[in-house]
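User: quick one, sequence for these tokens?
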């Protein structure tokens, strides 16, 4: 058995296809902080908020090799384990898998991880250990630090070992074709961190590294303390007060972080007033959801004039929408039934991505064949271009339609508009 990071022509070939569909899954995909990536053996720790899409977003950042570490329970089936290894994923066993498994099986993963890092192939972990659709962080597990410290002990004098924090900021966790901002933060030079501390208790070093990594990861996302009982109210208020968001995803993140900081500061200084405010937010949120009004309509302060302009634009795009709905119907019909059967809402984006990636090439192949058989080649070529973008347009138009209908509901809901004024 060769190294997990060895070249594989089929894997590399398929990567172009998979990455292309990852990009299609977002209206905008942006990466910032590449300048923070150091030279050396790098271990990347990312927040985990959107199931498989987190890995797909990271995979698409560059076409270079990447190796991932995932929880061991998904490797139980030997055939599945073989496929996962081909996909460059290593298993890591946790206490819940049994002390014996941690002791006997993690050694092989550690050895392979050392080899991957020595070859300076990026290795990614999700140190929260499980996904959760929240603008927060779960407790950081120790696995990433065990790997980093072992790598440093093995060859830290030869090349530096780093832990690089990664932040994934989604525009929406559940809606297909939202936005994603991937940020690389300030790296932790593990070799420098432990220098001169060889005699210290490793547990102390691990806990200090956990604190540093958590702080640096939190800076890369719209972070609300997980233990805060007012989390939902704070995030709702953040979206409302952020107003019409800037086009730059980086500025959007900075805007959200500033609003969160202001709200948390207000809560600390004026706890009683904050309690009253959060109660109003909860009441507002309940009414807003009952009336099926998006928080975007509230934040953007929908007006009759703006909505009228949107109506004209929607009308112009309607014929293309109908055509797109017809030609892409095999994709969205299957997606509808797949999503309907999901128990965990967090997998909605992943399910949409998988359906689109499988069905889009089939629809394209059938559609292009029919076009070139039935109409002149110039029209067939134009039709092929439309066919390629049809599902993307269909999804985006549905989102515009959702917000347009929400704007109309808000305009004619005086009670909700009055409640909203109290929150700005």
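Assistant:
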């Amino acid at each position: 058995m060769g190294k997990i990071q060895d070249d594989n022509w089929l894997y590399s070939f398929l990567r172009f296809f998979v990455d292309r569909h990852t990009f299609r899954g977002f209206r905008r995909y942006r990466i910032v902080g590449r300048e923070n990536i150091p030279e050396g053996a790098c271990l990347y720790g990312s927040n985990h908020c959107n199931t498989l899409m987190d890995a797909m977003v990271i995979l698409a950042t560059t076409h270079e090799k990447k190796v991932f570490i995932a929880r061991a329970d998904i490797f139980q089936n030997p055939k599945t384990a073989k496929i996962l290894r081909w996909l460059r994923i290593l298993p890591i066993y946790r206490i819940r898998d049994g002390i014996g498994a941690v002791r006997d099986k993690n050694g092989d993963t550690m050895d392979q991880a050392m080899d991957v890092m020595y070859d300076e192939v990026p290795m990614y972990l999700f140190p929260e250990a499980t996904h959760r659709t929240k603008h927060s962080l779960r407790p950081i597990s120790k696995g990433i630090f065990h790997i980093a410290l072992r790598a440093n002990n093995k060859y830290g004098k030869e090349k530096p070992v780093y832990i690089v924090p990664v932040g994934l900021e989604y525009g929406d966790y559940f809606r297909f074709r939202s936005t994603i901002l991937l940020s690389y933060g300030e790296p932790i030079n593990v070799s420098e961190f432990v220098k001169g501390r060889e005699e210290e208790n490793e547990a102390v070093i691990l806990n200090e590294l956990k604190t540093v990594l958590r702080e640096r990861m939190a800076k890369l996302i719209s972070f609300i303390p997980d233990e805060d009982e007012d989390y939902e109210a704070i995030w709702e208020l953040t979206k409302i007060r952020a107003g019409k968001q800037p086009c730059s995803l980086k500025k959007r993140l900075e805007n959200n972080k500033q609003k969160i900081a202001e709200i948390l500061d207000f809560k600390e200084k004026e706890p009683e007033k904050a309690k009253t405010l959060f109660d109003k937010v909860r009441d507002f949120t309940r009414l807003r959801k009952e009336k099926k009004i998006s928080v975007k309509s509230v934040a953007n302060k929908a007006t009759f004039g703006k909505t009228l302009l949107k109506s004209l634009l929607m009308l112009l795009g309607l014929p293309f929408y109908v055509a797109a709905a017809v030609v892409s119907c095999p994709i969205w019909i299957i997606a509808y039934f797949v999503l309907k059967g999901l128990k965990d809402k967090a997998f909605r984006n992943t399910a949409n991505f998988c359906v689109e990636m499988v069905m889009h090439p089939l629809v394209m192949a059938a559609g292009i064949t029919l076009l070139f058989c039935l109409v002149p080649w110039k029209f067939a070529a134009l039709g092929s271009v439309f066919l390629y973008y049809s599902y993307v347009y269909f999804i985006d138009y549905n989102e515009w339609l959702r917000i347009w209908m929400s704007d109309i509901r808000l305009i004619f809901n005086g009670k909700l508009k009055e409640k909203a004024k109290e929150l700005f």
